[in-house]
Structures are given as structure tokens and as C-alpha cells.
Known about the structure:
It is a single chain. The protein folds into 2 domains: 8-34 and 243-278; 44-239, CATH 1.20.1330.10. Helix content is 71%, strand content 8%. The protein is built from 7 helices and 4 strands. The chain has helices at 8-33, 44-97, 105-128, 168-176, 186-239, 243-268, 270-274; strands spanning 130-131, 134-135, 142-150, 157-164. The strands form 2 sheets. It has a two-stranded antiparallel sheet. Strands 3-4 form a two-stranded antiparallel ribbon. The longest helix is centred in the N-terminal third of the chain and has 54 residues, at 44-97. The chain starts with 7 loop residues before the first helix and ends in a 5-residue tail after the last helix.
Amino acid sequence: MSSILTNNSAMSALATLRSINNSLTDSQSRISTGLKIQSGKDNAAYFSISETMNSDSSIYKAIDESLTLSQNSVSTARLGAENVADLATQFVERIAFAQGSAGDLSARTDIQAELDALAERIQTTIDQSTFNGESLVTGAATVTVVTGISRASGSLTTTTITFTQQDLQTIQSTLAGIDLTTSSTTALLEADLKAAEGQMKAAIASATSLGIAEKSIETQKEFLSALTDRLDTGVGSMVDANMEEEAARLQALQVQQQLATQSLSIANQAPQNILSLFR
């Protein structure tokens, strides 16, 4: 039945065209933004997960930047400790050389001058072993460094590593307190040698401890870098648009739009055909 009031064919063609236009708009949006999921209405589950993962990635990147500062501080301290260990070794060598000079004050005085110079160089090294105003070689406090986050049990907590500052100042003070000019006997010189050797070992232990801390931070930074890459890749796989598919879909929708428009035009001509019945 034909009617001049209700054009079912035109309504059907219009609905089809409207659906195609909506799909075309969505496709053009995905192409322009590069995203197939832009909000919760597109896919609530994926949107929620991707936003959480994006947040974690941003936190990890911020922590990685903070770890860079910590690593530089520890690296500077480790370099200073290694230099102090080298100077302490030279200190021990000079005292060992003085073991045969128990009765020669002049020789011991000359060697003492060398020891005083080494002690000053140790102090200079300690004073310069700072990064961004932070020194890790003048105390024995425990340092806590945030290394990441954990969402275990549904709550966010931070993960940390700890290491101990190294007191190189005590080593310097002990070595600077050794005075060969007051040692008149072989026993005293031997005691000075043992004391210096003990401080040398302490300096080596400090350098080793700081080296371990630096390596731990370096390893964590490498892990965070790989982890953020995985998170970013995971987010991309959920929300990024497949541009090859979108390009093909866009072309198909454009053809469908043209055909739907022609179909609507044909459907709109149907009422005109009724006029021929009244001629």
C-alpha cells in the first residue's frame, strides 16, 4: 500500500543513513585521535584498566627520575670512598716504610709530612664527595629509597631499598691522629701500622658497601624502564586504534553513506509516483 502520510521506505533508508553516519563519525574520531577507547562509554572495563596502568606508568617514571638522583649521590659517594681507600693504602705504605726508622727522628719527621699531606687529601675528597648538596660519607644513618609501587591486595603501597651511609670522616680523623714523631719505639710504630691498616680496610669496606647500593639502584632503574615499557605497550594494545583497519572501515563507510543517500533519494520519490494515479 502506498501512502502520502507514511513513507516506510524513506524511514528505513533514513535510519540506515543515520547509523552509517554515526559509524563514520566514530571511525573519523578514532583516526584523528589514534584511540579506539577514549572514555568509559567506549569500553568501561578497558578504560578503567588502562587509566590505572597509565597512572602506574607515570608513577614509575617519576620514581625512576628520583632514583637517578639517588644513584648519582651514591655514585659520587662511592667514588669518594674508593679514592679515600687508595689514599689510605698509600698511608699504610708510608708507615710500613717507617718501620725501620724507630731511632731516626729526621726520617720519621719527613714521613710524617707525607702522612699529613695524605690526611689533608682524604679530607678534601670527603668534602668534595657530595651531589646536589647531599653527602653520604660523613655519617652512619640508614637511607631509605623508594623503588616502586605495589597494588597487592587492592591497595597501593611503596617498595623501598635501604643502605647505610659511610662515615669516612672517622677514618680521616683516625689517620690524621697518627703521629710518627712521637713513636720512639718499634712497638709504637707497629701499633700505628695496625691502626692505619684497620682504617684502610674500613675505607675499602665503605667503598664496597656503596658500590653494592649503587648497583641495586642501577638494577632497579633498568627494571623500572622495562616495566614502564610493558605497561605502555599493554595500554596501547587495549586503547590504541588499528589504523589499517580504520582506514579500510572509513572507505567502506563512505561508500555505504553514498549508497544510503541514493536509497533515501529513491525512497523520497515514491510519493511523487502517486500523482500519476490521478492523471
